[in-house]
Amino acid sequence: MAFMPPQGPQGPMQAPTAPPPQTIPPKPLTSTFAVDPGAIRGCLFRNTYIWLRNGSSTWFYPVFVGRTSVAGFRWTGFFWTYTGYDLRQIESFTCF
User: Beta 80-86 vs 69-75: how paired, if at all?
Assistant: First the structure.
């Protein structure tokens, strides 16, 4: 089965055409049990840096926010790749 890009109101959603900023933002001092979908919804289609509970962090470009998850494109260091996260996996985030 071939990969199908996510669909938006105007058709397939596309990954950003440029890499994210080179500077990693400072981590917010607050963290929660789970990220509120309403809070991260404000980051849709914006460069967002996320810190995960497992200790890793990455640039992320969210294109969909559900009740318990977020999906979008994660920067690998070379290209954007489509991925999703359970909102409970995200410790904190900041977007631009």
Answer: antiparallel
**What residue has token string 């489509």?**
82
- Listed residue (74, 68, 83, 72) closest to 36, CA to CA: 68
- The listed CATH number (2.30.30, 1.25.10, 3.10.450, 3.30.70) that belongs to domain 40-96: 2.30.30
Any bridge partners for residue 62, and if so which?
Answer: 72
pTM of the model: 0.85
**Separation of alpha carbons 81 and 71, rounded Å:** 11
Distant-in-sequence, close-in-space partners of 52: CB < 8 Å, separation ≥ 6: 58, 85, 89, 90, 91
Average pLDDT per 10 consecutive residues for the chain, totaling 96 residues: 53 86 91 84 97 96 97 98 96 94
